[in-house]
Structure formats: structure tokens, C-alpha cells
Amino acid sequence: QVQLAESGGGSVQSGASLRLSCVVSGYNNSNYCMGWFRQAPGKKREGVAALNSDGRDTYADSVKGRFTVSRDNTKNTLYLQMSSLKPEDTAMYYCAIARLRMCAVGIEHEDSEYDVRYWGQGTQVTVSS
């Protein structure tokens, strides 16, 4: 059974940094596409960042230059390092394992969530001004 467990969310002020973690269990495919999505109240869930097994990463335009996605294979953990946080980054953040197509097309694509096979439960990030 595949499980994704996020952690690292919290309440911070504008300009601060946070690092989200997602521990993956039960998924041993060496070819993967993993990523982070977020959903703010009343808004559609959107792709934030993704990373595939070849090391290719993609980002939504709104986070480019501020967020970095990475993975520690020894710990089966996906990370999202978030810097220069803004109030508009406030959302529930979800870790996901997707079909390879999502990484090929780019997580910023409006239909990227339909390629997701597994979701985590989410971790809340709140940024105050």
C-alpha cells in the first residue's frame, strides 16, 4: 500500500522560509514523477513543483526562483524548500506521485492533477503579511 506523509507546514510571516517533507512508503518504482500541489480556500488545486527520476524539475510560474523541489532517495523523502514566502502562498500543500506524463508536460499544466495516482493528506502553510 502506497502512503505519502507530509510534514513541515506552519504559520510564518511574509518573507520567511519553510521546508515541507513527504515520506513515501510502499512505492519502489525507480522511474517516478513526484510533486507538490496546493489548494487555497475557494480555489482550484494547482501544481507547484515536480521532480522525475531523471532529475528534471518543473515549477509553476508563481513559485519559480523561490521554491525548490528535491528528493533524498536514501530516506524515500520528497522535499519542497520554500523561500521568500508571500501571503498568496497560503494553502494546503499536498504531496503526490503521478504518471510520468505529468513531469514530461510540466506540473504547471492546468490538468496536471489528473495524472496523479497517489495523494498525501496535506500540510497547511499560512503566510501572514
Key terms:
single chain; 129 residues; mainly beta; 7-stranded mixed sheet; 4-stranded antiparallel sheet; 11 strands
Mean pLDDT: 95
Number of helices: 1
Count the beta strands.
11
Poorly predicted regions are none
Q: Span from first to last CA?
A: 40 Å
Indicate the radius of gyration in whole angstroms. Answer: 13 Å
Topology:
Layout: E1 3-7, E2 10-13, E3 18-25, E4 33-39, E5 46-52, E6 57-59, E7 67-72, E8 77-82, E9 91-98, H1 100-105, E10 116-119, E11 123-128
Parallel strand pairs: 2-11
Antiparallel strand pairs: 1-3, 3-8, 4-5, 4-9, 5-6, 7-8, 9-10, 9-11
What this model shows, in words?
A hairpin with a 6-residue loop joins strand 4 and strand 5 (46-52). The chain has 129 residues and is mainly β. The strands form two sheets. Strands 2, 4, 5, 6, 9, 10 and 11 form a seven-stranded mixed sheet that branches. A four-stranded antiparallel sheet has the order 1-3-8-7, with no helix packed on it. It has one helix at residues 100-105, and strands at 3-7, 10-13, 18-25, 33-39, 46-52, 57-59, 67-72, 77-82, 91-98, 116-119, 123-128. It contains one helix and eleven strands. It is 5% helix and 50% strand. The radius of gyration is 13 Å and the shape is globular.
